[in-house]
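Protocol step 4 of 6: structure prediction from sequence.
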Amino acid sequence: MLYHTCFAFLSIVFLTFIQLSSTFELKNLGAFCSNDSSLGVPNLIPIDDSPAKLLRTIENGSIYSIGSGDDQVWLVHVWGSNGYDYGFAYGTLLKEQIIQLLPRAWAHFEQRIIDELDQLKLPKWFEDLVVSKGLAFALDFQNTLVEKYIDEEIYAEMRGIADAANVNYYSIRRLHMLGEITRGRCSLYGLWGNATLGGKTLQLRALDWDTKGGLQDYPVVTIYHPRSTKLGHAFANVAWAGYIGTLTGMSSTQMGISEIGIYFSDDTFGDESMSGLPFIFVERYILQYSQTLDDALSFIANVKRTCRLVLAVADGKLGTARMIQYAHSRVNFFDDENLQPLAEWHPRLTNAVYLGMDWLCPSRQYKLYKQIFYQYGKVTPQSTIQNITSVAKTGDLHVALYDLTDTIMYVSNARGTNETGPLEAYQRQFVKIDLNIEFARTNPFLK
C-alpha cells in the first residue's frame, strides 16, 4: 500500500515537473507571441506604505502625493453633484500636468497610429479616413458613432477639465477615443479561496502598453466622491493627467476591473464594431455603479459592446472573480471550472482565472501560469509583486494589485523622463494605497 501511495505521489510530481518544464509554440502569431520563455528577476524593492501628503485643497477637490523619489504618484480627490463638478476640480488641481501631457501624448500616438495603421486591424473605411482626413478628423467621426451610448456626465466631466485647465475640449475627447484603436497587451488574474494566503480575493491588472508616449510622467490615481446618486458610489481610477476613462481601478463596493486587448483571437470571439460604448467607459461604469459581481456581468451582457477584449471582474464581498471574453456580437463568461482557452499552455486552476498578454500567446500565458502555480495557496499582493509580475515580465506601463478583501491597492508606474532605475513598472517600487482611508476622506470646503 505504501509503495502504491509513494508511486502515485512521485507520478504526480513527475508529471508536474514535465508540465512546468515544457515549452510551447504556436506558429503564425507574429513576433510578439513567439516562443519567448525568458524570465525576469524578482522585484525585491520594499513597498512604499508611507501616508499620503496633502499638497492643496480647493472647492470640490484636493491633491496629495504618494510614494517617494522617482516613484511618486498624484492622488486626486474630487467631489461633485455632476460630472462637470468632478472635471472642473480635477482640471484645476492638475492644470499644469494636463497642459504638458496633452500635446506630447497626442503627437506620439498620432505618429504611432499612422506608422502602424496596417497592423491595427481597423475597418478599411476608418484607415482610409485617417489617411485622407487625418487622425483628429477620424476620431471626431468615431465619436459620432459612440456618443449616444456615453453618459452625458462623462462629456460634462471632460468639459469641466477643459474649462479649468484651459485646454481644448476636443483634444480631451480625442484622447479618450484612442483606446478603441490602440489596444495594450496586458495580463490579469483573479484569485480567491484556496489559491491565496488566508483565502483573500486578489486581482492583478498589468498594463503592457506604450512607454514612449510620456504617460508615465503624469501618473494619477483619482478618487471620486459622489454627492448625487446619479453619479453612483465612490471609486478609484488609475490613469494619467487628463484621462478619465477606466483601464485600472477599484470601487468602494470591493470590486476591481482588469482588461487585455486582443490581437491574436480565434473563432470563439465575435466580430467587432466601432459603434457602441467604448470599453474604457464600460469598465468605468462597472466601478462607478455596480454593487456586485452579478451587476457587472449583467451590464457587460447587455451593453452595446465594441472591440475584442478580455475583461476580469472580481468581488471581494462574494470572494470570487470572473473572466469575460468580450466582443461586439458575442460575450462569454468564465470561472475556474470552464476557463478558456483550454490548452496545455493555459491549464485550469481551482479558484483562479488568469490570462497572459493575449488570447493565443502560449509562451507568455504559460509563464504567468507557472508563477501562479509556484505561489498557489500562498499568493499575496507582496508575493505577486516579488515573484509573479516581475518574473513573468508583465506590466511595463503600470501594474495594480487589488486586495479586494481588505480594500487596499498597490500601484507601480514605468520610469519617467529623467528618472533612474528600471523602465518597466513591474521592476519598480510599488506604492500601497489604503482605500478605506481614501474613500472616507472629506473635503473641508464641504462641511
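Step 5 (inspection) to follow. Residues 1-22 have pLDDT under 50 and may be disordered.
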